[in-house]
Amino acid sequence: MDLPNIETYLRPNEIQTINNWGKDWAWLAGGTWLFSEPQPQLRVLVDMQSLDWSEIEVQEDNLVIGATCPLIKLLQYPWQLEWTAVAGLKSAVSTLAASLKVINMATVGGNLCLALSVGSLAPIMIALGAKYEIWNLQGESRLVAAEDFQIGSRQTILQPSEVLRRVLIPVKNLKWRVNYQRFGIAATDPALAIVVSAYNPENLQFKCVIGASVPAPKLLDCNHINIDYSPSLQKIEFINSPKASATYRREITQILIKRSLHQLKLINTHP
């Protein structure tokens, strides 16, 4: 979709060269959402592709994914076989209700910063203990835990003009066993519930993150593996909408948790 209201288009080589950020400005990464519907409030687009950020690399003890990395790269990158958790990353991309054309253009940072309740990447980033590096226009940076980044549907902790620079996932966590579960009425429909479970065989640590059924992904309190997480789920406020009631989403989430535990071979029964 054309955005005829845009008056200025910028392609900076460094974000420090940008001055006087306005409320009618927006970062442009892949643009798959930005150009999908009218944006009458915008006058200036700042194209991030000219920043030439790296896509995927290993630095010290972290896998580093640049914010402008296209989603398709998560499927195509030659991952190490011992990084079993990558299967979850691939599932998060593969289960997107999007065409191959969108996946080729849409970016990791765009998916995370759009912060839709149905966002596919945020739950697994939380499960893997990822951190996000955020930059401001002065070149200052800060690290935040993935679980603290999204605070609601279409809401993050980003301040005006701040940008997500990259995602850092501890390499040791990539050796975890991860299972990604998604439920929607149809494969092409937005998810009604997402569950990501991660299990560390070395110390028996278990994590479970729910998404899509709640406004922002939520890490469950999992001190031990339990077939029934109903008591914990009862304390959570689930989305109630014409598409699915809060009660329905809660029940589906419980089923996906059991299914995920079964896939990880942590329980012997299948729901």
From TrEMBL:
GO terms for molecular function: FAD binding; oxidoreductase activity. Gene3D superfamilies: 3.30.465.10. Residues 1-174 form the FAD-binding PCMH-type domain. This is Carbon monoxide dehydrogenase. It comes from Fischerella muscicola CCMEE 5323.
